Amino acid sequence: MDLNELLENTVAGMGFELADLERSAKGRLLRLYIDKPGGVGVDDCAAVSRQVSRVLAVEHVDYERLEVSSPGLDRRLKKERDFVRFAGQRARVRTRVPIDGQRNFTGVVREAGAGTLRLEVDGRVVSLELGNVESARLVPSI
Fold first, then answer.
1. Is 65 inside a domain boundary?
2. Pair 71, 20: CB distance under 8 Å
3. What is the pLDDT of residue 6?
4. DSSP string, 26-76
5. Are residues 7 and 64 in the same domain?
6. Could you tell me if 54 and 8 lie in one domain?
7. Are 84 and 112 in contact (CB under 8 A)?
8. Which helix (H) or strand (E) holds 12?
9. What is the pTM of this model?
10. Averaged in consecutive runs of 10 residues, what is the pLDDT profile of the chain (142 residues)?
11. Whether the Cβ atoms of residue 45 and residue 70 lie closer than 8 Å to each other
12. By the 8 A CB rule, do 92 and 104 touch?
């Protein structure tokens, strides 16, 4: 079982979603972003940290530091299900390959499915292949 799958299963068993996982270049720092309906509090992060630490020890995963937090208002969107969940919200998307000479798009997520993201940008809908999305984040409304 790979690390991502191990951590997804661990936090899911506690009622959370693993929203994102970052690992430093040398793997010494593990940073988990967890989420659940209604949001995540400090006690939630502490509980997940304790449980994940135990699991990593049992699985002999070598690391120095573990950080657990909520994904924040400008959370990353990585998987198709993230775009589906946040349909109707504004997102900033950067593509790997330009589309009509443009790589950066900011607009409202209209829908996602079958490997495609439909983003409304300045009144027009742009279709982006999810495989071409380099990065995407929600744009918090103020």
1. yes
2. yes
3. 96
4. TS-EEEEEEE-TT---HHHHHHHHHHHHHHHHHTT---SEEEEE---TT-B
5. yes
6. yes
7. yes
8. helix 3-13
9. 0.82
10. 92 95 87 93 97 96 94 93 95 96 96 96 95 96 78
11. yes
12. yes
Are 66 and 54 contacting, i.e. CB atoms less than 8 angstroms apart?
no
Query: What's the pLDDT at 141?
Result: 83
What does the alpha-carbon distance between residue 66 and residue 68 come to, in Å, rounded to a whole number?
Answer: 7
Q: What pLDDT does 25 receive? A: 79
Give the domain extent around 40: 3-69
Provide the 8-state DSSP code for 130: G
14 and 48 in contact (C-beta within 8 Å)? yes
What pLDDT is recorded for position 125? 95
Residues 112 and 61 in one domain: no
- d(CA 115, CA 130) in angstroms, rounded, equals 5
- Domain final residue pick, 48, 69, 90: 69
Burial class (CB within 10 angstroms; exposed 0-12, middle 13-18, buried 19+) of 48: buried
Closest by CA position to 31, among listed 59, 12, 3: 3
